[in-house]
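Tokenised fold entry reproduced for absentees:

. . .
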Amino acid sequence: MGACLTPTPTMAPWYNVEVSTSHAEITATTYLRGWYRVREEGGATDWRAATADAYTDEERAAAWITHGPATFSTPAAPVSALVAALRQIADHPAYARWQEAGGEPTPNGVRAELGADGRARLTGPFIRHPEDQDGDHLHSVEVLFSDIAPLLDALKPWPVLTGDGTEADPYVIDLGGAQHRPEECGCKPSPARGDIS
């Protein structure tokens, strides 16, 4: 288990992040909470055995969906929430240590496109587990550190909306409400902190 980070306001209620030494897990928070609710109500004890009708529409919409060996749809959430989760990973000290040890982004043809269901469909970056079947609703996915920068690059052209629905600059880093452009001063954002659990 790695560092479980506190979601930023932009990530909530859609994503939580757990960072390890070479990868991170991005959890679909609302879907996972739905699974806990199903289990507590006496439903299936294995999240994969829970029937689709055990979840509310909101909970199912908040899941990751598998489409093929390397393609997933994101939860039905603003793209800015996913960008914030990826930035939280990139700002964590474990990511910096990985870079200092020689870790580099992998040019692997990561693609981000809008699916017919209105969700972002990402191809290329995720660790696919053998038990993940096409069409499965998942509560989390794992991403290698080498795929974080390519994913952020693939999502840059997408409009990012602020809480009031206006379009934000996707290249501006959110430092707790203060907007800062690192290319203007050459500094790096302070790392996100998390508790090891």
Q: What stands out?
A: The radius of gyration is 17 Å. Confidence is low (pLDDT under 50) at residues 169-197.
